[in-house]
Design a protein that fits this description.
By secondary structure, this protein is α+β, with helices and mostly antiparallel strands. The protein has helices at 9-12, 47-53, and strands at residues 19-25, 28-37, 40-42, 63-66. It contains two helices and four strands. The longest helix is centred in the last third of the chain and has 7 residues, at 47-53. The two termini are 21 Å apart.
Length: 70
Amino acid sequence: MPAGTPVDAPSATYGWGCIPAAVRIGGTDFTTSLFPREGGYLVPVKVAVQRAERIGVGDRVEVTLHIEPH
């Protein structure tokens, strides 16, 4: 997730800057946590999602995120 993406991290984080999110890639919905990294956020993609959507490390994908503040 690029730097400058509007996220109110303090109200959404559960600690260590990690932010829980509901995510959609292609036709697959899953939950994960965004991790702060180099001024932006890393979106981990579960192996089951990678296989279902036929994506791998280095691929560019369109991601839909839903973040719920605490």
